Amino acid sequence: MCGIVGYIGKNQALPFLIDGLKKLEYRGYDSAGFCVKNEKGLYVVKNKGKVQELEDKIKSSQILGNIGIAHTRWATHGAPNEKNAHPHLDCSGNIAIVHNGIIENYSALK
Fold this sequence. Notes:
Blueprint: E1 2-8, H1 13-24, E2 31-38, E3 41-48, H2 51-57, E4 67-73, E5 88-89, E6 96-97, H3 106-109
Antiparallel strand pairs: 1-4, 2-3, 2-4, 5-6
């Protein structure tokens, strides 16, 4: 299981995303992360562990943007670590995705 939350609106995305992750944490507590988009591009933060640890990691940061996605993970494949935490970025760093499950055709997509 995993938990996915997204936001598009007039308000800042990050408070909504963190609140959503906390509500979905029962679906996954091995790692968590988010991506917020603003005029400078994508800002991604991921962390192994619980959502509170992710929140502690960004406590002194000002992350602005009104579009974002977030994910909390229960590791069924791959180690519970920051590398395997979502969101994942494409090779150019312009696309961020989160997903629930195993992407069996990842080689073909790659």
